[in-house]
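Troubleshooting log. The previous structure file for this entry was overwritten by mistake, so regenerating from the original sequence record. Sequence copied from the archived sheet and checked twice against the printout by T.R.
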Amino acid sequence: MFERGLGVAQSNVEAARWYGKAADQGNATAQYNLGVMLEKGLGVAQSNVEAARWYGKAADQGNATAQYNLGVMFEKGLGVAQSNVEAARWYGKAADQGNATAQYNLGVMFERGLGVAQSNVEAARWYGKAADQGNATAQYNLGVMFERGLGVVQSNVEAARWYGKAADQGDSDAQFVLGKMFWEGRGLAQSNTEAIQWYRKAADQGNAEAQFRLTQLLSAGRSAAHVVAKK
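Regenerated output below.
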């Protein structure tokens, strides 16, 4: 109530005080919220050490978001000694509870062999779980896995499908690659119109590769028009 100003004057100081009281009694949600306040310095002095400590208490009780946040703290070395092993362990706990961002991060850890044995199969599996929940970056990464046959059977059709899902959510890398697949007719029907449409979407977001490709196509189009005009 104090944090959001619902029925009382908004006060991060009071919110943190009451979260602290509930946290001391073992309330996992309060422990997580107190961790957030400490991490962001809301109503209390900012402290990554204390944030990680309270995330840890909530995480030990099974709070999935706290488990994810604790994974981030370990991965980045915020308030705790940096440890990819611990990061992967806590991402795994949150991922098992369906946290999509944790599933994506765990996929990255497996793909790069950070804190876990490198495994494209496991990477693709976790990207898939996050992708199914609508995580756009996971959808893009899963598209890459299918395009290159990493941890999955190579399939341009599946690659284009996942790039399309990420592109629809505004991922500029996915938009560029989808445009390229339309241009080359890989995994879907060849279409210059669709290709240019997706290149434009990516370029409008500042994607350098898409901007360069559009410049090439426009230059080629002007050159062709000039040749026709001279005839």
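The two ends are 76 Å apart (CA to CA). Archived copy saved in two places this time.
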